[in-house]
Amino acid sequence: EGGQRFDLVVIDFTDVPLAGGWSDDFFANLRSLLTPAGVVVQNVGSMLGPDGMKELFQHHARAFKSTFALTTFIPDYAVDYVLALSSPNDIDPWNANWTFWERQRIETQYYT
After folding, report:
1. C-beta of residue 24 within 8 angstroms of C-beta of residue 60
2. What's the pLDDT at 54?
3. Of 16, 67, 8, whose CA–CA distance to 35 is shortest?
4. 62: which residues sit within 8 A by CB, 6+ positions away?
5. What is the pTM of this model?
């Protein structure tokens, strides 16, 4: 309580699924760390399979008001890569406030 709040939390884990690593309590606690406009992005990867993905997205959906599945093509993977995007508030992932993010001046680098 009274701790730091975050606008963005990124959960990145290996393609080897963490057995039992995710729970409703974990995501409820994570939700409490977010600012009102905060979001969580979690790589779901490609190795969980349908049942594992369903379970992980159910955890997100129970903890957050908005949860979306996003996919992208990454050349290193044989199938589309899946990300979970969640927020404690209503969000529209297709209507991002890019001006806000540009002001953050976050340096990125693409590795080839």
Report:
1. no
2. 87
3. 8
4. 24, 27
5. 0.79
